[in-house]
Write a structure and sequence with these properties.
Blueprint (H helix, E strand, L loop, with lengths): L1 H6 L9 H17 L6 H14 L3 H8 L4 H4 L4 H11 L13 H15 L5 H18 L2 H19 L2 H8 L4 H8 L10 H8 L3
């Protein structure tokens, strides 16, 4: 179900909130039942992704706490990238030897630039679409699922970022907001309730 939802258009996430929540709870129940021992980290990543996309960022982050630095080294390249997007941290792994080296490098560089406030929605959309197209032709079934999830997460991360929300819902120009983003404790991303308040003009 998560694959079907993220393979669609990004704009229908709000309409699919309850199906996404069902997916998150489904993956989480498998984790808790311990019926699958060889894919625990992948299930954590997928459950965390579904919770985030359903509008529960707190629950998403709780699940990630169970993934240690040692675990990250055991993840595949795409799983590591998904982890970085979920944690909202730079992706510093150089994907040498990957069959889609150029496409994933371009996207991860754009992701890292986004974290610094310098990538556009259009750039992230285009580069993730290029990687998605390549993986659909040459990737594994698991990679197909992961790129759809990663792409949807990145686009949502952009839409709920403080820069994006403020630029769309504030009468104050972004050049006047920039000093705020240089402060060490500035907010990078708004919670769902804060985004709604901004959209209502509060």
């Amino acid at each position: 179900m998560l694959g079907d939802l993220t393979a669609g258009t990004f704009n229908n996430l709000e309409e699919e909130k309850y199906r996404l929540l069902f997916s998150a709870q489904y993956f989480n129940s498998i984790l808790e039942a311990e019926v699958i021992s060889h894919s625990q980290r992948l299930l954590q990543l997928l459950s965390s992704s579904a919770y985030y996309l359903a509008g529960y960022p707190g629950s998403s982050q709780v699940l990630l706490k169970g993934i240690t630095n040692g675990d990250i080294g055991q993840l595949t390249l795409m799983e590591q990238f998904l982890f970085a997007v979920l944690k909202r941290i730079p992706f510093l792994n150089t994907p040498q030897g990957s069959s889609f080296y150029e496409s994933i490098t371009n996207l991860t560089n754009a992701w890292n630039s986004f974290l610094q406030g310098s990538s556009s929605y259009e750039e992230l959309d285009e580069l993730s679409s290029i990687l998605r197209s390549y993986i659909y032709l040459h990737g594994t079934d698991k990679d197909l699922l992961l790129i759809d999830v990663i792409r949807t997460l990145i686009l949502k991360r952009f839409k709920v970022s403080a820069r994006s929300v403020l630029s769309e819902n504030s009468d104050i120009g972004m050049e006047l907001w920039e000093p705020y983003f240089t402060k060490p404790n500035h907010v990078d991303e708004f919670w769902p309730s804060q985004v709604k308040l901004a959209e209502y003009g509060v």
